[in-house]
Amino acid sequence: MALLITEKCINCDMCEPECPNQAIAMGAAIYQIDPARCTECVGHYDEPTCQSVCPINHTIISDPLWQESNDALWDKFVRLHP
């Protein structure tokens, strides 16, 4: 499943440069994650880097509207990084 940045975001700019898939960009008010590009760092790291660098707990969560299996995340990683 892709990740989602909640309204707790303080726009600290920590997550965007850490995303290996370039899935994070500034939205109208807070950063947003493009679910089509988010692999939860599968293929890159053991855990999502955006979550690990975010200074506010529970700001970046699993997106309940974008459910994907680990296999689907791997397939997305392969498509994004041929």
From TrEMBL:
<dbReference type="GO" id="GO:0051539">
    <property type="term" value="F:4 iron, 4 sulfur cluster binding"/>
</dbReference>
<keyword id="KW-0408">Iron</keyword>
<feature type="domain" description="4Fe-4S ferredoxin-type">
    <location>
        <begin position="1"/>
        <end position="29"/>
    </location>
</feature>
<dbReference type="Pfam" id="PF12838">
    <property type="entry name" value="Fer4_7"/>
</dbReference>
<dbReference type="InterPro" id="IPR047927">
    <property type="entry name" value="YfhL-like"/>
</dbReference>
<dbReference type="InterPro" id="IPR017896">
    <property type="entry name" value="4Fe4S_Fe-S-bd"/>
</dbReference>
<keyword id="KW-0411">Iron-sulfur</keyword>
<keyword id="KW-0004">4Fe-4S</keyword>
<dbReference type="InterPro" id="IPR017900">
    <property type="entry name" value="4Fe4S_Fe_S_CS"/>
</dbReference>
<keyword id="KW-0677">Repeat</keyword>
<protein>
    <recommendedName>
        <fullName>4Fe-4S ferredoxin-type domain-containing protein</fullName>
    </recommendedName>
</protein>
<keyword id="KW-0813">Transport</keyword>
<keyword id="KW-0479">Metal-binding</keyword>
<dbReference type="GO" id="GO:0046872">
    <property type="term" value="F:metal ion binding"/>
</dbReference>
<keyword id="KW-0249">Electron transport</keyword>
